[in-house]
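Kindly inspect both lines:
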Amino acid sequence: MSLRALQSDFCAFLRKDSATTLASVPTYAQRGLKVYHYAHRTTLADALADVFERTHGWLGDARFASACRVHIASHMPTSWTLADYGRGFEQTLALLYPDNPELADLAWLDWSLREAFNGPDSPEIDLAALTEIDWDRARLSINPTLACRRVGTNVALLWQALEDGRSDPPEAQILSTPAVLTVWRQALMPRYQTIELAEHAALLAAKNGASFGEICQAMASSAADTDAAAATAGAMLGRWIAENVVVAIG
């Protein structure tokens, strides 16, 4: 048997739920296989539990452990660090619990907050320099840690209740109007916020290189009151700057 075939067999063995023998491994080494099997799966399950603490709290021990087993069986580590292992766990939960969309939303929020914490630093804008900006042509640089997800559940309320350790968290609910959950890091603190679809569209336009003037025009074209749309755009920009969502203007 080639080394590649042996490695492939061993990886398949590690993905299985229960330890079994491998015909390609000599008899004298069979006893150690269970040790490798247990250590591998326990390490990955611990990594998931560390990142998805609030999801774990919502699911409970038994269901979370079951979800971990399913995820481990279909997702081998592909990075040099276990910090990357939880990527895609929300998709596993979406497949396991299609009638409970809040679970995938919670897992995405857990993961995105951790990624934001580990993300690159961003400068704060010099407010004094803003007086010289040509706002019609100004282009906004968005915080590189910003992540967005369209959600249909009250995931933000659920996550905060779990974070606060409440014994009576609210029930999962479907939103009457879909919203977008945003995650980013301000200074050293990961943050999250639910925003409306119009604001998300403005963020996407900014990330794609649209000027602030073009963003304002797009908002005005879809509003009944153009003056109100201009005021909304200005207030939105002020909040983005204050919250470090926008990290540079040029």
Summary: The beta strands are 140-142, 147-153, 174-186, 189-195, 246-249. The first strand starts at residue 140 and ends at 142. DSSP finds ten helices and five strands in the chain.
